[in-house]
Design brief:
Length: 169
């Protein structure tokens, strides 16, 4: 069984494209530029399920047209509309500078000065130029390279120098 900590979110499936099962996938990670993979994982009824891609092509930097194996009708494609799309962390392992912020969902944030755990990253808000980590408790923390002191991939922790008073807002 694939666990949440083994994957990171890369996007969401949109509506069907055409009548042969092709779908639009909105991506917020450049994993397809970094890694060659035959499959992605979809959250279906709460479970992470691998779906193998017959083919995919980019429509833009954030939109991909994808055709999954055994998804051959518009009806079957509609069943998958709005499913979250994930990628295995183990396949994306590489140089740290190749990661996007969404890779760190599920990591704990440690405040560098105190050494205390701030919380776990639940999502990344990159809808503006100021990318934010959305913590499980709703706290928002700036996701900026200059704030990151260290990253421990094995322990799934990011140590950050947080601005004074940020956590008391």
């Amino acid at each position: 069984m694939i666990r949440e900590e083994d994957v990171f979110r890369i996007g969401r499936l949109g509506k069907p494209h055409g009548v042969k099962g092709e779908m639009t996938m909105q991506v917020d990670d450049d994993v397809f530029d970094r890694v060659d993979s035959d499959f992605v994982l979809l959250r279906v009824d709460g479970l992470l399920v691998p779906f193998y891609m017959e083919e995919y092509r980019f429509r833009s930097d954030t939109a991909v047209l994808v055709k999954f194996e055994d998804v051959d009708t518009v009806e079957r494609a509609r069943e998958l509309t709005n499913c979250e799309v994930f990628f295995l962390r183990s396949l994306a392992d590489g140089e740290e500078e190749d990661y996007t912020w969404s890779f760190f969902v599920g990591f704990d944030v440690i405040e560098a000065e105190s050494g205390k755990t701030v919380g776990r990253i639940a999502a990344v808000d990159d809808s503006t130029s100021n990318v934010l980590f959305e913590m499980e408790d709703g706290t928002l923390i700036p996701a900026a390279e200059e704030l990151v002191s260290s990253i421990d991939h094995d322990a799934r922790r990011i140590t950050m120098q947080l601005p004074a008073g940020l956590l008391s807002l």
